[in-house]
Design goal:
alpha+beta, 38% helix, globular, four-stranded antiparallel beta sheet, 8 helices
Length: 232
């Protein structure tokens, strides 16, 4: 299955990053397809794999309340807010609560952490990837921003690839935002907290708009024309 295949590729990469950066690295799987006890069987090369079957109750309750709220529809139709995948995506905010880590790199299950198109064996690709990740994380450590991503076709932040500096305060702020939106309704024109569309929130000087060839994400994960976003 894709989950197990992706984990088998992620383990040697995490091990190589740990050796290169001289810091512990573990892998967290958020899924109901595995038991929490399966993590021990997937752990290897000094990398612990932890399986999470549940999310923080406060986050789950906030997402459920938002899903049940009467939302202001997009003019002329648009997104179907009742679709389950839309609400499940909001559960990704759980990564902001992983405060035991300095950084968290989040990948959707369909993201290749070590693309097969790269030359060399799995271990060789892991070694190259580790060098790039270590350099990228060193750059993140020197910056004040707490969330890094890439653009996608409709927004400046791609939820399938996120790098964050966990913060319990921001995690709780996010839950409060979901709760407020459930109370007052979603406004498609003005967005979360009426702050405006995402493209309006990210400053015009951000690299998402001006530095098409510069990336804070390792090159083996980058796509041409998809610049990083340093969300604030």
């Amino acid at each position: 299955p894709p989950l197990l295949g992706g984990t088998k590729k992620a383990v040697p990469l995490a091990s190589a990053i740990s050796k290169t950066a001289r810091r512990p690295v573990d892998i967290r799987l958020f899924t109901r397809c595995l038991e929490e006890s399966d993590g021990a069987h997937l752990s290897s090369e000094g990398v612990a794999v932890v399986v999470h079957n549940t999310y923080r109750p406060a986050l789950v309750q906030a997402v459920k309340a938002l899903a049940a709220a009467r939302l202001q529809p997009e003019e002329g139709g648009g997104l179907k807010f009742g679709q389950a995948w839309y609400w499940t995506t909001l559960l990704k905010w759980q990564i902001m609560a992983l405060t035991g880590a300095e950084f968290v790199a989040f990948f959707d299950i369909d993201t290749e952490v070590l693309p097969a198109t790269s030359p060399g064996s799995l271990l060789e690709r892991a070694a190259r990837g580790a060098a790039e990740w270590t350099a990228a994380l060193g750059c993140l450590r020197r910056r004040k921003e707490v969330l890094f991503s890439r653009t996608d076709g409709s927004a400046p932040v791609n939820g399938g690839l996120l790098l964050v500096k966990p913060s319990l305060a921001l995690f709780e702020d996010g839950i409060a935002l979901l709760q407020r939106t459930a109370d007052v309704g979603w406004n498609h024109t003005h967005g979360w907290d009426l702050a405006g569309l995402p493209r309006d929130v990210v400053p015009a000087t951000d690299d998402a708009w001006k530095s098409r060839g510069v990336s804070a994400v390792p090159r083996h994960l980058a796509r041409p024309g998809r610049p990083p976003v340093r969300a604030r």
